[in-house]
Amino acid sequence: MGMNDTPSSERVHIGFFGRRNAGKSSVLNAVTGQDLAVVSEVKGTTTDPVYKAMELLPLGPVMMIDTPGIDDEGELGGLRIKKSYQVLNKTDVAVLVVDGCQGMAYEDRALLGRIQEKHIPCVIACNKADMDGPAANHGDSGNQGESAGKPQEAYPQSLPVIMVSALTGQGMDQLKECLAGLGKRQESGRRIVGDLLEPLDFAVLVVPIDKAAPKGRLILPQQQTIRDILEAGAVSIVLKEDGLAKALPALGKKPRIVITDSQVFGSVAKDTPEDILLTSFSILFARYKGNLGPLVKGAAALKHIGAGDKILISEGCTHHRQCNDIGTVKLPGWIRQYTGVEPEFHFTSGTGFPDDLSGYSLIVHCGGCMLNEREMKYRMECAEDQGIPMTNYGILIAYTQGILKRSLEPFPEIASLLG
């Protein structure tokens, strides 16, 4: 897989934030050496977040995000500011671009507070260092200038502050090195399944043909799992669900693990001998993203669902709904069958995850393969903050079919959460 083929979810997301005309877009263009963002003397040129996948040396594959100004005005401006703040939910490294001729304003300070609340690594890029201004000296911006009638504030001492000029290129190499250092800290070192395998182990992947996937392609979690198996020096065997029973005795060697798509969990469990580990792509990716424990706990909340309780079923991507769609058709059916009651189902997809979750008794989320780790953690933290249990498709399916405990055998410390 080349740099340009790296999935969005696996890229370090670098967000550029700041007031209108601080030079966010110009600094982003200078860092990348490309005209990724529109630059204009007119305030508020960037009206929506702009995403661009690229390679940034010495860091590697990244997603660069240009955002609207955090000091925009009016009702429409307020919506743009909200969009900028929402970008924080999927930002791994933040760049706060400050107008070096004016220094930090209260809007900068407010955003910085939110960045620090979310524990996002951040660097302050003090732009227009080629120009004379009262804020051109690091840490000594004083109270020069005003924004919306409020005084400017000095740069915080706890964060790196780099004097840059988008016009002359001053400080750009230093900024890139800083971004690389902050981005490298985001690498978790976790594996999808490779840490469970020895070289030449067999890993059997049960992959139904997904009608929602483009013809001739495997969906992303399947591709990434195969890649991880290869990196472990093990052997991946990929087959459809109706071929598992015949294939296992024909392999000549007992597989170390069977990994299945959640939709066929029940039939695959019946065809997989008890002495072979069994799990699903959903469970593996929940562990990979660091969410498996809370999601397993969330599945147990299904025992307490009553008639009329609201359940949110949320997908991280958008695709054409099939007539037997898992999110809108199959999952509600399994939930009704397990609970024996009729809950009230609500559905969201893509970026449409609600801020207010207080009316829901349970959230069931997809595996989040198209969301980066920070976005998925944000959604889980929103649910946790509001006391709403949350699980994912695969874990809930295994739970409703009574095979979750078995499918967690590779992870005994997580299985113990079920009691």
TrEMBL record:
Domain Hydrogen maturase F dimerization per the UniProt entry, residue ranges: 192-290
Transmembrane regions listed in the UniProt entry: none
Keyword field contains GTP-binding: yes
Keywords: GTP-binding, Nucleotide-binding
GO cellular component terms given for this protein: cytoplasm
Gene Ontology MF term list: GTP binding
CDD domains in the cross-refs: Era_like (cd00880)
InterPro entries: FeFe-hyd_GTPase_HydF, GTP-bd, HydF_dimer, HydF_tetramer, P-loop_NTPase, Small_GTP-bd
Ranges where the record places region Disordered: 134-153
GO biological process: tRNA methylation; tRNA wobble uridine modification
Keyword Nucleotide-binding: yes
Residue intervals of the Hydrogen maturase F tetramerization domain: 295-410
Residues of the G domain: 14-128
NCBIfam families, alphabetized: GTP_HydF, small_GTP
Name of the protein in its database record: [FeFe] hydrogenase H-cluster maturation GTPase HydF
Species for this entry: Enterocloster aldenensis
Taxonomic lineage of the native organism: Bacteria, Bacillati, Bacillota, Clostridia, Lachnospirales
The encoding gene: hydF
